[in-house]
# Entry
Amino acid sequence: MASSDRTPTEIDRIAEGWVDTAVELDPTLGTYIGRAEADSRLGDYSPDGLEARADAMRRTIAELDAATPVDDVDAVTLTDLRSELALGLEAHEAGLPLRDLNVIASPAQEIREVFDLMSTDDVDAWQTISTRLAAVPAAIEGYIQTLRLGIERGVVPAARQVKEVAVQARKLERNDGFFAEFAGGRPAEAPASLSADLDERAGGAGAAYGRLAEFLEHELLPVAGRRDGVGREHYALQSRHFLGAVIDLDETYEWGIDELARMVDEQESIARQIVPGASVAEAIAFLDGDPSRKLHGTDALQRWMQETSDRAVAELGASQFDIPAEIRTLECMIAPTHEGGIYYTGPTDDFTRPGRMWWSVPDGVTEFDTWRELTTVYHEGVPGHHLQIGQAVVNRGKLNTWRRQLAGTSGHAEGWALYAERLMEELGYLDDPADRLGMLDGQRMRAARVVLDIGVHLGKQRPDGGGEWTGEYAYEFLRENVNMNDGFVRFEVNRYLGWPGQAPSYKVGQRIWEQLRDEARNREGAAFDIREFHRRALDLGGVGLDTLRSALLG
# Structure
């Protein structure tokens, strides 16, 4: 894997230094990328910790401004790293970290989720886990201090997010909650002293989440925002963060409405192929009643995910992509939580931990429909996130650690994954109309949330002419456009309301990826090679979408 294809430059040194700094300030990042020296710690989530990060960003920007790129790789690193750091400072100065609380991607979840990625292989690993468990109370206390400063400055999250996260925290507080269950998984040969420490520290971690819930319920909720929408200024900043590109939000809202209508038309056409004359709902009911398309239990789900992924890797690696040996393994996992999400975690830099697809199955859900979920495996695995992110990690001879492990945006990653879903249709993997309907079910949802997310946060007029968007209408709108149970719909809408700009980045990112491919095809004419286009694009690693455009098209 190690290669000396390219001599590291001064800009590479700065980027590597930023990775070291980022890991020092946020050890959860270190765990994510396999920096074992960070595994026993948690970061400082207090206002002092925020200021330390801001100071580090300022210093790194100054270093970048004094450096000169020596080649195209340097130019991309300089442009993208400086842009990310400047945007981070802009968010800091706008006070966004003081209201950083939502149902899916805030410190309230991050502090717990890092334990999912920690090694549990031996007693030494459990000693490290014990040390990190002991750090949870201080991390939670620092986070409470930050949210309390937000209260003082009038920068607070919406009440809906506060209520939902308080419920999550209460679950983690329980004596039979995640921390107690996790600590109970230690090996039988663990010394008695370590076992005692694990039990005590797991209890302390749960109690810390109880204190967070208490703070949320009694201090933050009474002063939390009554409106779910964050407004244009905040939203534009978040959109740039998730896309790495500046877009026309009003044009994108109108495009989203048109794209949603196109997805509905396409679904209706395929529904009639499944059952002549059927509506989409009737075709779905027909498929849901087909026992040959059912999986029963999470064990069956995990096996099917793994088999589907292994087959895609083998076949696409032989015909469509050059898939390096290091990333031909993707582990499909059932997550230890029950929140309803499906997500990917990349491999460590040395590949001792492979890329993984995680499915967080909600409590009580025991049946799964393969026609709905086939495209999900392609989205999270190959040719989706695993190929994209894993290939960047492999590219050590060209890309510095920041480019391989930390760079990129949701729009780049999720846009590619949606692009990959459509690519699998083009390659014949979704020839079964049922599987194609499942893919369109997801694509329709992604189009719907472009409209919903921009609509509610910018206070746009509803597409049905019923006045201004509200959180309540968002539930109705999404329920009309997804074939999911109410629990899923509520979780998804709560996610959009608390994480502005992230949900549209999928479909908007796909739009930009497709625009870049089509523009390259038009420029190159008969010489255009789609495999070469994909190779050049993925060879860049993660980048903002404006950087991707300039790198591919000049």
